[in-house]
Specification:
It is built from 5 helices and 8 strands, in the order H-H-E-E-E-H-H-H-E-E-E-E-E. It is of the alpha+beta class. Helix 1 packs across helix 2. The longest helix is centred in the N-terminal third of the chain and has 25 residues.
């Protein structure tokens, strides 16, 4: 099978997604904690998703279709671009790694969303871990996919998973993945360069614009303080949280 070489998406779209994640995690949440003079940041690993969803929705505006879908106790943002026929969802890198190596008992929504990515071949060098596969009812996955896509109008083809990684309150990377139905990576495209480019509506982000200046339970652990290398502003440090995003334990058919 031929593998797609590029997602062929506009720079402005990539900038809106990457910068929305950056502003939410690195700016909005720490600023809120500081303004409220909160002594702790309990639950911030989950709470940051409210800012991520809001900022991405604001940046993209009416240029794209979007909906919020509920799976178990988790509610997530799902995007659809009629121009490319792609849908998009967002997840943290640690969550995706857990999902690749340990699928939940019930079907995960990413498994359903990627069912139509069937013409893609996995990148060379990937090793499937024994024991991580689960037998799924394709009919059930199709039903979940139809339910998740029910708010969209237009022909829908591939689903793209957007991943981000963060250390404490600093977003360190963003990339877009085209997955196979077995959650193997067919294409990985880095969007990290857009993290430092302020988003401007109706304008392409040129490099010259770079500024100089799941159960609702989380486990907290201390993380060494770090400063934002991409900004001249000093942001309040918050402790890194290891969250399951409610995705691993709250999926049901």
């Amino acid at each position: 099978m031929d593998t797609m070489k590029s997602l062929n998406l506009p720079d402005q779209f990539k900038n809106a997604i990457a910068r929305g994640i950056f502003d939410a995690v690195t700016c909005d949440l720490p600023e809120q904690i500081s303004e409220q003079e909160l002594p702790t940041s309990v639950g911030s690993g989950l709470w940051r998703w409210n800012y991520i969803n809001r900022d991405i929705e604001r940046f993209l505006g009416k240029s794209i279709q979007y909906t919020y879908q509920k799976r178990g106790a988790w509610k997530f943002l799902l995007l659809f671009d009629p121009e490319t026929a792609f849908t998009f969802s967002i997840m943290s890198e640690p969550n995706f790694k857990r999902l690749q190596t340990h699928l939940p008992q019930n079907p995960h929504y990413i498994e359903a969303l990627t069912q139509k990515n069937s013409q893609q071949s996995p990148m060379e060098g990937q090793i499937r871990l024994q024991g991580c596969e689960r037998q799924r009812d394709i009919g059930v996955l199709d039903e979940i996919r139809e339910q998740l896509m029910s708010d969209f109008s237009g022909i829908i083809e591939n689903h793209i998973l957007i991943l981000f990684d963060a250390s404490s309150n600093i977003v360190t990377s963003v990339r877009a993945l085209l997955l196979t139905p077995h959650l193997e990576i067919a294409l990985s495209e880095s969007w990290s360069r857009y993290l430092s480019i302020p988003y401007k509506a109706n304008a392409l982000p040129y490099i010259d614009d770079i500024s100089s200046d799941e159960d609702i339970l989380v486990s907290l652990k201390d993380d060494p303080n770090s400063s934002d290398p991409t900004s001249g502003d000093t942001l309040p440090e918050i402790r890194k949280e290891s969250e399951s995003d409610n995705e691993d334990q709250n999926q049901s058919s």
